[in-house]
């Protein structure tokens, strides 16, 4: 089953992309991952809060407001509080919308980077503005639909007489309804990100058009995608637990020196306090970058896993044909003679007529040497010096490659 086999192929593909380690590429990729991954904290959600219900609650007006007036001798500033909360909520909403729009564009920056095995943030960003905005609009739309469907039953019950008379069974049913709705929402969002966005990039289609293109592939291979979902959820949980420990220890190691510097700056007085605030901001950015670096190989692995499955179930949607061919023709490692090895053995060994064939015979049966079968031994003798130079150059190249790894 492709959904299972691709687990190991995704490891090889991720390793080939991220190694040898290049600091500049990792830093740029970490910035992209900051937007396309939740970094283990959960995906971005619209900040909520029913201020109208909060303000109109009779218990609050008659109870807590009177207690405030009795204690402080003045009227509770309810309107000012609501206004302040609305302003804060509006600011948070604006920042979230800005983040979500950038995240939509960065999804395609990430896909371009995985396809090209190079990271060019500005080039890919400017080339995918339209795709990113369309993806953001679709994500926002399904989030609003899920929000309306999730709150509509509660709102209807509240308008008919309040929530105080709800039975335990009805609350349980509502909880099950909410869980099911969230699962549907998360599946649609994941499939849009993992499988529909690559089709958008390949065929320059919108989100709905790409969903229509993917639908027949998804339904025709529903078992593969069901296994994919289960494995992704299980692996995500296990890897997230391990990553949390790494992040905790790493952030603690970073916090100690920054904390010492901030403490010493505060001791200097007012100027020191201002500098301490600046150092605190730098520390916060460094910690975010560290978390993004930890999640970079994790996010890369899961995205390659999805792309491999998409290409296996429909070759027209293969975004990474070169990477796929590399890991599947040789198991991820080249052999000493330059041929690709499958499962630890030379793929041409199966073609030898007998076990007693010599190494020279097998070399003569290589596909790229078929034309040389008719050459006589004298030809090799005449060109022996050229052959020695060639093998010597190959040895030098091999040594250089080993040093790079």
Distance between the termini: 32 Å
Query: How many DSSP helices?
Result: 15
Instruction: Look at the structure and give the mean pLDDT.
Output: 79
Q: What percentage of amino acids are in beta strands?
A: under 5%
SSE ordering: HHHHHHHHHHHHEEHHH
Oligomeric state of shown chains: single chain
* Biggest β-sheet strands, sense, barrel: 2 strands, antiparallel
Q: Name the shape in a single word.
A: globular
Low-confidence stretches: 42-62, 331-405
Strand order of the largest sheet: 1-2
Q: In angstroms, what is the radius of gyration?
A: 30 Å
Give the domain tally: 2
Helix content: over 70%
Based on DSSP secondary structure assignment, what is the total number of beta strands?
2
Protein name: Membrane domain of glycerophosphoryl diester phosphodiesterase
Region (Disordered): 327-405
InterPro entries: DUF7544 (IPR055966)
Keywords: Membrane, Transmembrane, Transmembrane helix
Structure notes:
InterPro entries: DUF7544 (IPR055966). It holds the Pfam family DUF7544. Residues 389-405 have a biased composition (Acidic residues). Residues 327-405 are annotated as: Disordered. Residues 327-376 have a biased composition (Basic and acidic residues). The structure is a single chain. With 405 residues, the chain is mainly alpha-helical. It has two domains: 2-327, no CATH class; 381-405. The chain is 77% helix and 1% strand. It is built from 15 helices and two strands. The protein has helices at residues 2-18, 23-36, 51-56, 58-72, 78-116, 121-127, 129-161, 168-203, 207-220, 222-266, 270-313, 321-330, 359-364, 377-382, 384-404, and strands at residues 341-342, 345-346. It has a two-stranded antiparallel sheet. Helix 5 packs antiparallel against helix 7 (129-161), helix 8 crosses helix 9 and helix 9 (207-220) packs across helix 10 (222-266). The protein is globular, with a radius of gyration of 30 Å. The two termini are 32 Å apart.
